[in-house]
Specification:
Helix content: 25-40%
Mean pLDDT: 93
Number of helices: 6
Shape: globular
Structural class: alpha/beta
Oligomer: single chain
Strand content: 15-25%
Distance between the termini: 12 Å
Radius of gyration: 15 Å
Order of helices and strands: EHEHEEEEHEHEHEH
Low-confidence stretches: 1-6
Strand order of the largest sheet: 3-4-2-1-7-8-9
Largest sheet: 7 strands, parallel
Amino acid sequence: MSLPGANTCLVAIGISTGGPKALEKVLAGLPVDLEAPVVVAQHMPVGFTELLAKRLNSICPAEVKEAKDGEILQGGIIYIAKSGMQIELIMREAMFVARIFENNEELYKPSVDILFKSLARTPAASCVLGVIMTGMGSDGLEGVRELKARGGNVIAESESSCIVYGMSRSVIEAGLADQVEDVSNIAEAIQGFIKNQRGRDSKSP
């Protein structure tokens, strides 16, 4: 699905144990002119995502920053979800908008499930790419399930490159991954998805 004049293509990454090093490999491979926003939910202690964003911003071609409440997401910018809080995305005037809020009922802050489920509820769900990477447990599985039910696409990191084969394993074993990629190939796969999505958009009446 595409909305006229909208920036409806988006990449959402869910990641946990082993995440910072894996994110370096993926995000450093994304170009500065990437035609979609990227949102990362990384399980980290409170206060560490700001440092992570600054570190990644120093080595990545694209701008990396911590997401702010009410922010309209822009293509070519990578947004790191704030640790200790939850992030969900809504659509306003055909643009993705971040909503940052507290939720003490969830074990993970930020929760990949909350992020992905919010994307599944948007009119642009079929234009979203979810990426599940290294991490313990199965956070993201239910969010991926809902996103796939709405036509979204999913990449899962392969067992061979995961530091902890948990989160991606749960998605792969549930049969929900459209692609399974080593961490070294994920940046290229993301760019391929965005290119294909833009190609479909350009052909839409």
